[in-house]
Amino acid sequence: MEHDSKAGENRERRSCWCEEASGLMRDMMRQMGPPERARRHFEQAHIEFLRGVRSLIDERIERMQTRGSAAQGGSTIPVE
User: Fold this and answer.
1) CA separation for the pair 36, 40 (Å, rounded)
2) Is residue 53 in a domain?
3) Which end of the chain offers a freer environment for a tag, N or C, measured as fewer CB atoms within 10 Å?
């Protein structure tokens, strides 16, 4: 949330309590670290997520190439 002064010149950034709590939780989790089993699970999930994104990109490339080859198959018009 931003606070405007009466003159409108100074703006200060105020953080929400939820941002502070989120930061504290994040720091605490980093210090504790997840158990090895959980870490491996999340790592594998991250890999699978990236594979899904790669599939979406590959599909989009395929559609663009297919559309591009169809557009290249046009007819020739003789010009005098």
Assistant:
1) 6
2) yes
3) C
Which residues span the domain enclosing 54? 35-67
| Residue 21 maps to a domain | no
63: which 2 tokens?
A: 């559609």
54 vs 71 pLDDT, higher one: 54
Q: Is 7 helix (H, G, I), strand (E, B) or coil?
A: coil
Name the phi and psi angles at 33, rounded to 5.
Answer: 70, 140
Strands (E) located in the chain: 2-4, 11-13
Mean pLDDT across the chain, nearest whole number? 79
Tell me the whole-structure pTM to 2 decimals.
0.46
Domain count for the chain, please give it: 1
pLDDT at 3 over 60: no
The Cα-based distances of 68 to 23, 65, 72, 74 in angstroms read 48, 5, 6, 11
